[in-house]
Design brief:
Elements: E1 11-18, E2 24-32, E3 38-47, H1 50-59, H2 66-88, E4 97-100, E5 103-108, E6 113-117, H3 120-127, E7 131-133, H4 137-141, H5 151-157, E8 165-170, E9 173-179, E10 186-193, H6 196-206, H7 215-219, H8 224-230, H9 259-276, E11 287-291, H10 298-307, E12 312-314, H11 325-339, H12 346-349, E13 359-361
Parallel strand pairs: 1-4, 4-7, 8-11, 11-12
Antiparallel strand pairs: 1-2, 2-3, 5-6, 7-13, 8-9, 9-10
Length: 365
């Protein structure tokens, strides 16, 4: 493992995230040394319209017009970067690097495959800023799952907080990071579906992109037999690290239920799988912090609070920016990549050794 001795000066970096919830692009600006120093700056989100969500969904699994969608996706990311820098009154020349996650359309770690679309060279040319992209492939090549990637950033942010601490990110897929007393005492894995099944169900049967404020789930009744069957999936008993593809589970499991009962059952499924993840922790977490879109769902948050034997709070309770957190993480990881520092560990992805990653695209090339 390369010694962690990043540059002492905090460097401007932009991070970009298009999550499996397919709700839009998050862009965040940080200053960091790639180590313990992290200063969160600006944040901007650009929602996807229904047409873009359809086009992204059409290429999931690597089918359809991948090249065309990838170009559109990249140009949309370039536009978000321009808007973010204008908002911050910052010139592109002031930014050292963009951490570009792209959009995952296939994740099959058991087959040693992960695929994020997004043209790093095009983004560098459009923005005039160096880009680090393809942040998962090296991890997979070294035997890792390629996910989750945010744990080292969460660990850096959590300095000074009481530990053991659990940070759960509820995006399309939900993942958790358990952070112990030591700086490198980190365990991370995907817990199960996050918002994806709920969003898919509501869009297919209610014509809305999500269950706003958890209102549908709150009005419905959980189909307990169906829920019990979903929880029998062997994934939940597998020892971590482990990760999932967005489509490893399907909202079709709730077929035949009413709109409200389906939302209630799928919401209960997400909550139960997050709570169940605690059995894999080396020791119980004294606190759970929740980030990602799921923290905006009061029904889901209430179910987590009822099932977890520790306080459950949104990350804003400790001063973190929940909507910006994943995008910030990719800015941080890009800086670590430039310094040759690890972005994944054996305990976060199952990689054979602490590994750096990412491919650098120079704006001048």
């Amino acid at each position: 493992m390369k010694s962690e001795n990043p540059a002492t000066a905090a460097i401007w970096a932009v991070g970009l995230m298009s999550g499996t919830s397919m709700d839009g692009i998050d862009a965040a600006l940080i200053r960091s040394d790639g180590g313990a120093t992290v200063i969160a700056e600006g944040y901007l989100s650009l929602p996807y319209d229904a047409g873009m969500r359809r086009r992204l969904r059409s290429v999931v699994g690597g089918r359809g017009a991948v090249t065309e969608v990838e170009r559109e996706l990249t140009l949309r990311h370039a536009e978000v970067v321009r808007r973010l820098l204008e908002q911050a009154e910052l010139a592109p020349t002031a930014v050292r690097v963009i951490g570009f996650h792209g959009h995952t359309i296939l994740h099959r770690p058991q087959e040693h495959r992960t695929w994020q679309i997004g043209d790093g060279a095009l983004l560098a040319a459009e923005t005039g800023i160096d880009v680090v992209a393809d942040l998962r492939s090296n991890d997979v090549a070294l035997g890792g799952e390629g996910a989750p990637l945010v744990p080292l950033y969460q660990a850096a942010l959590s300095a000074g907080l009481a530990r053991p601490l659990a940070v759960v990110n509820i995006g399309g897929v939900a993942n958790v990071t358990w952070i112990g007393e030591a700086a490198d005492d980190v365990l991370a894995f995907d817990t199960g579906p996050g918002n994806a099944l709920i969003n898919d169900w509501v869009e297919q049967h209610g014509g809305e992109p999500l269950d706003r404020d958890g209102a549908l789930a709150r009005a419905g009744a959980v189909e307990e037999t169906l829920l019990a069957g979903l929880l029998e999936n062997v994934y939940f008993d597998r020892r971590p690290p482990k990760s999932l593809d967005r489509d490893d589970f399907s909202a079709a499991a709730a077929a035949g239920l009413s709109l409200e009962d389906g939302a209630a059952t799928l919401t209960a499924f997400t909550a139960a799988t997050i709570a169940r993840a605690a059995v894999h922790f080396p020791s119980p977490a004294c606190r759970w912090l929740v980030t990602g879109g799921g923290r905006h769902n009061p029904t889901l948050m209430a179910q987590l609070a009822a099932q977890l034997e520790a306080p459950v709070e949104p990350v804003e309770a400790v001063g973190w920016q929940g909507d910006a957190l994943e995008a910030q993480a990719f800015a941080y990881l890009a800086l670590r990549s430039l310094a040759g520092l690890p972005i994944t560990l054996p305990t976060t992805t199952g990689v054979s050794r602490p590994a750096s990653g990412g491919r650098l695209h120079k704006a001048s090339e």
